[in-house]
Amino acid sequence: MRTPEFLLAPMDGMTRASFRSVCFDYGADGATTEMIQSLAYGRARKPMSPTFLEVLARYPNERNLAAQLIGSDPAAMAESARRLEALGRFDAIDINMGCPARKVVGSGNGAALLKTPERAVAVMEAVKAATSLPVRLKLRLGWDGAHVTAPFFVEQAQRLGFQSVTLHGRTREQMYLGAVNIPAIRAICDGTRIPVYANGGVTCAEDALTFLRDTHAAGVAIGRAALKSPWIFEDIAALRRGETVKPRLAPERVALLIRLATLTCGHRPEGVAICEMRRFCGWMLAGLTGCEAVLTRLNGVVTLDAFRALLEEYLDALARSDDLDIHPELLPRPTLDTVAHRQARRTAKWM
Length: 351
Ligand SMILES: Cc1cc2nc3c(=O)[nH]c(=O)nc-3n(C[C@H](O)[C@H](O)[C@H](O)COP(=O)(O)O)c2cc1C
Known about the structure:
Layout: E1 5-8, H1 17-25, E2 30-37, H2 38-43, H3 50-55, E3 65-70, H4 74-86, E4 92-97, H5 102-106, H6 117-130, E5 135-142, H7 150-159, E6 164-171, H8 182-190, E7 196-199, H9 205-215, E8 219-222, H10 224-228, H11 232-240, H12 250-265, H13 270-285, H14 291-298, H15 304-320, H16 336-347
Parallel strand pairs: 1-2, 1-8, 2-3, 3-4, 4-5, 5-6, 6-7, 7-8
Bound molecules: flavin mononucleotide.
Flavin mononucleotide binds near residues 12, 96, 98, 222 and 224.
């Protein structure tokens, strides 16, 4: 039996190289870039914008990294796959057939392909023919509960010699809410030879192992839980060795945030990078005494030096009062689904 793998799932605006690199430090077995619009990328004539360069960046510690394409035009998808392969930077090409955003499905892309099987298969065939890199598929169970079409697409992926499939166990109709359909994922895993990575709803390392066991998958792809706790990959490895999960104290959290900020500043203007760190600070400092005041002060910080100084000052204060651990009663209670919805409101992409 293959050793199960635990991958970082693609997340638009989140899983850029700097965040992925941090997850790889914690032992992620692989990752996927956020989705790349094939119509824009496959036809681009101008030099790439800094944002695009960042999306396509790769750190040396990243292994098993796929670049994800989204689109429904087979020619543009094929051309994008060729361009990505020519960069010589990625280990695989991943096709997005799961994005539920209204704007995306409205133009026939992402999860909309689940409703247009002929076009979807044409896209899969075109990408496969265009590249010698392994090709992967990421999809949802189906458009809605009455149309669970994933088995057909998994069969097509197997027929075309795809490397693997990542299966989000919800339908498009469910967006990011509601129960993940474990029996449906298991039936698909049991019925195919292609490795299937189960995805959806993992909140902690214990969850990931239960999900793996219950779905019979080849591995698990973890999305939102990794945003709050990138150390989840290390926790999973500890549990698999029969050890317990160690608490993540303030010094580790602060060091991680400073490292992530430093990496992110290497890709975009300092003020923008530090501003984007606020959401990671909100997630990773939650539960520490006095974190709200620090988060408020962070709103006025725009340089890496000031970011580092503020977090180090906070850490000193916690250390002086011997209060470095997380207090569960101080944790806010947003669910992972709320994380998606906050992001949705911000980017208007995920509703
Ligand atoms: C903010 C956000 C952005 C996402 N962007 C992508 C994307 O670019 N490509 C993709 O295939 N899935 C994307 N997803 C879906 C995730 O990869 C994953 O399938 C979903 O979040 C369920 O897994 P989770 O419960 O572990 O988060 C995104 C999800 C979120 C929350």
